[in-house]
Prior knowledge:
The structure holds two protein chains of two kinds. By secondary structure, chain A is an alpha/beta fold. Chain A contains 13 helices and twelve strands. In chain A, strand 3, helix 4 and strand 4 form a beta-alpha-beta unit. The two termini of chain A are 29 Å apart. The C terminus of chain B is likely disordered. The structure holds pyridoxal-5'-phosphate (PLP) and FE2/S2 (inorganic) cluster. FE2/S2 (inorganic) cluster binds next to helix 2 of chain B.
Amino acid sequence: xxxxxxxxxxxxxxxxxxxxxxxxxxxxxxxxxxxxxxxxxxxxxxxxxxxxxxxxxxxxxxxxxxxxxxxxxxxxxxxxxxxxxxxxxxxxxxxxxxxxxxxxxxxxxxxxxxxxxxxxxxxxxxxxxxxxxxxxxxxxxxxxxxxxxxxxxxxxxxxxxxxxxxxxxxxxxxxxxxxxxxxxxxxxxxxxxxxxxxxxxxxxxxxxxxxxxxxxxxxxxxxxxxxxxxxxxxxxxxxxxxxxxxxxxxxxxxxxxxxxxxxxxxxxxxxxxxxxxxxxxxxxxxxxxxxxxxxxxxxxxxxxxxxxxxxxxxxxxxxxxxxxxxxxxxxxxxxxxxxxxxxxxxxxxxxxxxxxxxxxxxxxxxxxxxxxxxxxxxxxxxxxxxxxxxxxxxxxxxxx
Amino acid sequence: xxxxxxxxxxxxxxxxxxxxxxxxxxxxxxxxxxxxxxxxxxxxxxxxxxxxxxxxxxxxxxxxxxxxxxxxxxxxxxxxxxxxxxxxxxxxxxxxxxxxxxxxxxxxxxxxxxxxxxxxxxxxxxxxxxxxxxxxxxxxxxx
Lengths: 400, 143
Ligand SMILES: Cc1ncc(COP(=O)(O)O)c(C=O)c1O
Ligand code: FES
């Protein structure tokens, strides 16, 4: 393989994004000039307070919520934890049953598992081969003890977009709180918490060109929820801790930008993604697209290459300057393949060979060309080494 | 994450391929993460004159296969039997703890291939030290 000129092609925007220039510019003064603690009463503190109010309004507008339904947190994980633990403990009188899905982010799954250890009952809804939750399954799972339904808006690995409006309607009909982790969805789909009957919604600013360590939990007015972080009276006494003003300002600016032209953004990214996907499938035999062909995030490709393992693919791609990710067991830390891929019914060895490419604003046609040049060589090389690959379409495992 | 040596053996793996009519073949699977390694040995007068591999697995598994085949070439069967996964890992200038089990796969593959040969020769197979080859060093499951 040629080791020509070094370039970096970042195709892992679902892992995190860079901070946009406009976002950074908006943030900088809040590190230096306007550093005052918003809880103080002197004038420099008032600037901080105003900035937070403005960010709150920006987030509210993007979600179709009221500003006083927006709470800033330290990120998606905290928002998910707060929504689930907070609603669970505040509604014990009603019951202790929670419904979620098998393909949630670990911030939701591990939180639910924690609650199970503490006496809660959790139903993990299955998904179909595309990763879709069936609204009928949700309706069947609801009991009079169900206090919360938590289904992600769009999946971070396979990009599948769930039928949130239908799920929300079912939750409302049965008067059960409905939380959705929209960390991956924001900026890619039009969200309207009122019309969609969403009671709680999590966001994380580093997924939409804002800073890391800042997130949002939207809580519909009137929702019964306990605090997660106890302490000072910040965030209207619901989330303690001196505000990360610069982060919050960045989060507000970033969400304003990312929701200003969802259609235009999607069109551009989808065109790049579709060309990349078509090229991969044309150049490389024995592949399997994971996720839904149509109902998926515009920048997401998740594709398995039979006979090879994902980590070794990533190492080669990285060597060529391409940043991507995989659902292989060998990179998971726990040495388990992706729970999401397994939930779609994909065999373990095919999950092993999955590659996730998530495109974002920096990607260009030249990037797509570069990946299409490098990836087939990497796959061919690893297949040559694989005992499963018998050099033909019929060798090895024959999953279509 | 990986040493330069691992990356070298990963990017330029030695001895990839199969040996036709190999004297001994070791096919092993990794119970920890589900990977597969095949080791092929050519043995003449009790000496390993050629060793090749095919591996479906991570960078550490490929590098371990490459290094293990290098280490056993030219060795007598008795010497090759003593090439442990630790020796493979050390020759690679270390593996991350979570990846130590990948080198176990290489040791196992060599043992299986040697015993395959011994059986074909009508000899008693040697006792494998690692009937349950998951060495769980660091490979705990909690992320
Ligand atoms: C769907 C989803 N939820 C939650 C998170 C966690 O967000 P954060 O990293 O901000 O805690 C992520 C990020 O990986 C995610 O993709
Ligand atoms: S082969 Fe799976 S972690 Fe090394």
